[in-house]
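The instructor's notes for this session suggest beginning with a concrete chain rather than abstract definitions. Hand out the sequence below and ask the class to guess, before any prediction is shown, which regions might be ordered.
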Amino acid sequence: MQKLIKNINYFIRKIKNNDQDVWDELEEQMILSDVNASCAQKIISDVQSEVYARKINEPEAVKTLLKQKIAALLGNHQRHRLNTSEKKPTVYLLVGVNGVGKTSTLAKLAHMLQKKEKRVLIAAADTYRAAAVEQLQAYAQRLGIDMVRHQRNSDPGAVVFDSIEKSMAKDIDFLLVDTAGRMQTSYNLMEELKKIKRVVLKKTNKVPDETLLVVDSTTGQNAIFQATTFHKALDLTGVVLTKTDGTSKGGIILSLQDELGLPVKMVTYGEKLEHIAYFDPVKYVDMLIN
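After discussion, reveal the predicted structure:
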């Protein structure tokens, strides 16, 4: 993941000259790193005001202040943890457009839960793409996890219904639901996903414990459009960012939080099943500003 501001020490050394252009350049670099304009403006304005009010002139002190402002926006670690249910099964619904890595993310999450000795069941509710079901089946077999699937083009809600019944009968701890992502038929997709949530509510007396949007971190501001669309329909609880080991611009995390109040809960960073982790806001800030 790229730094939020390139050559930050160079800029910070110029701040003591009380040059407004320096602050404007810092704000511009944040925007170029996929931080939305209003968020970038607020962070830089707050830092600028405090620097001059407290007469801060040490570069490290300015960097520390910038990190603090970003960390405050993200909130504490607890906001970035996955919810679990006291009543089994805990249900995680993974949504997102095709091609962002939903299926591989679900497999990585299943593997992570397995390592914690949790009983996991997978629901193949993307019934429209045979390749998606086959890929998920391959992961399930590799992990030794049961999977519920129906015929192609069958009702995804029925898959989830049967998955919940099986989870209850088998004392499953976590039910992970893979879903379709056909944004070219956005209305039908959202109605289908809403139906899945209703099935979960009817069968468990609770909505999914997590409704997670899987986002390719390299898509930039398009991720905001995706998140807005899914959040409006489904009331998302968080985001999983994929491909964070590449050339993604880390500012998208701030934009998701600022515009939609959505915390990033998990990140994936490679091809192996082990390449998944909880999002750590402290490490994130240290990585972006150094």
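Then share the key points. The beta strands are 90-95, 120-124, 146-148, 174-178, 210-216, 238-242, 264-268, 276-278. The chain is about 50% helix and 15% strand.
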